[in-house]
Amino acid sequence: MSEYDAVIVGAGILGLATAYHIKRENPNDRILVIDKLNAAGQANTAKSACAFRCLFSSRTNYLLANSSIEFYRHVQKNLKVDLKLNFIGYLWLLCEREYEELNPVLKDVAQRGFSYKEYDKQELAEKLPIRTNLEEDEEAKIMGLENIYKGIFIPKAGIVDADCLVRFYEEEFLKMGGEIHYGVEAEKLMVEAREPLGIPGEPYFWQESRIAGVNTNKGMVKAKKTILAAGVWITKFLDELGIECYIKPKKRQIFPIEAKTPELERLLFVKSFSKEGCMPFTILPKFRILIRPFPTEHTFWIGYADDFPRAYKLEENPQPEKNFYEYGIYQILVKYFPQFKDRRPTAPWAGQYAINTLDGQPVIFEEN
Amino acid sequence: MSEYDAVIVGAGILGLATAYHIKRENPNDRILVIDKLNAAGQANTAKSACAFRCLFSSRTNYLLANSSIEFYRHVQKNLKVDLKLNFIGYLWLLCEREYEELNPVLKDVAQRGFSYKEYDKQELAEKLPIRTNLEEDEEAKIMGLENIYKGIFIPKAGIVDADCLVRFYEEEFLKMGGEIHYGVEAEKLMVEAREPLGIPGEPYFWQESRIAGVNTNKGMVKAKKTILAAGVWITKFLDELGIECYIKPKKRQIFPIEAKTPELERLLFVKSFSKEGCMPFTILPKFRILIRPFPTEHTFWIGYADDFPRAYKLEENPQPEKNFYEYGIYQILVKYFPQFKDRRPTAPWAGQYAINTLDGQPVIFEEN
Predict the structure, then answer these.
(1) Which chain B residues touch A244 with a CB distance below 8 Å?
(2) CATH code for the domain defined by A3-50+163-229
């Protein structure tokens, strides 16, 4: 059993990006990626909404997202690898309360050189078009929906093709001499005492010990560093060692709607936000339903991530629920965008989202 | 199906104490306690180390512990219910680093009127006796054990009989007209929309909803308030609703050692700490092995709660492990207390401990 410099559990987008960057910085290191599936990016990466943005309230997440975007741009522009990168921007539609809450964050990130545009409700109604005032709507009142007060548009944001990105990282990592073993399932992290004494059941709590690699269904992999990039499955590995990572899985369902009517066509190819001539990735107020335009497919993806009272549940292969669209998402969507009235989704799918429960961020939490 | 004012899941010490105090404050309320087992305090309450102390670094935990102790004293002294309350005190044995860390906490709690005594290592060696200096010991060095620098003695602390306490709460609660249903297993919390609309699968995320009681293996229990006092099992209920409670289970094993030699007898009935004439509940440095004297049984309970690399694992009926004492606890214990050399535990047992992972406290965490 030879020892790697690093083993990375998970060949999703985060695992492969990590592998690529470590290998690039340390060309002589032996880096191994393992994944239980038979190809890259087949688990939740394949089920993501494939959008990116640089607005995060925490500094770490902002820096991480911003440098990732710069890197994607570099790959597409300088390395001539088509990631289907599309800077359509992000549009947060906010009710008054949300705007008051977000305002200090925006002021703060603006000082770091972050640029955004603010639209009032009249501008939004003209640009999109959208219904911003639901006051006369009895149903909307029962549902607790709120008027749209402002829109915040972030130009440095957009959509990408997760599969293109995954393939780029995989190919480059392999070219540099990185190793990937597919069909290898990590079962448990290996822990060993720094100074083994040969006593039964070691390491004991009084022994200084370290994570020494991974036990897999194909044998042990020893490594100097073990990196978990297994998304929602990370908790499973860490709970086994009594390490808390504050990660919980959220199910996210995505429902594609084809832009088959002139009204939806017009909404999809709205000209007034970016030079891409496409509707931005849009977040509705309060419940944060997302609308991810897919201009090349003439489709919108409508998505939502679980919230109370839906379970934190680790599912191997989560499935979309028809009623979740029909009585959940749809009811809210048509109040703001009546263009979607009576449109039914085609081929929906579901994935999982690893959120940390300390600040609700999907990426990295920051402790005070 | 009638509705209770409150349903409490779990008839352990926390569930019954909660039931008792709510009922006392609200004599006309219908309060129900349910428990999957057939009597009170049979799960982890029965497996606790049955000690109490009022030293906690957080203000909430301090107030909670302190008022509990006052209440126990009142029950034993004024209500003449024998809880086998014994103010033998708590003795924290600290290495230099731990003392430096604890010192500001002690200064802080002292300002709230909390009293404690500080002993230096010479005093400790004479009073107990204990080995405070392990510098010449090669094995101790390999194990990373540290010299004892100071001892902090807390008089307002000691031991109690958990079963007596549980029976007191149970009897008084029943006398006031409280209800307890044993052999009823809570399966899931019930959630309902505040304004049900009769749509399939409600409540949806956009509906304002509330926890409306508990589904059990014997049917539904509706209640205005639902209180989880299920210890390590709480997470299971909350995960199902997407609520994070930051609780993880830790296994704790307890190994009783009989005080059969004159040296152990002398240690157990040490006179110099409290008027009880008994060794205090003692915590060893660094790894925090606990020694809980049981003077009426002429026994010490030696205990330890899991730490890295032992799993966070929810066990229905955890069992003690022989090697955990032999190669884990014992090795450290005899370095400080050679009196325990070659003594073997009789009838060990294991339980679980619900710790919150934010500040490691067993009771309540405080957010900044």
Answers:
(1) 246, 248, 312, 357
(2) 3.50.50.60
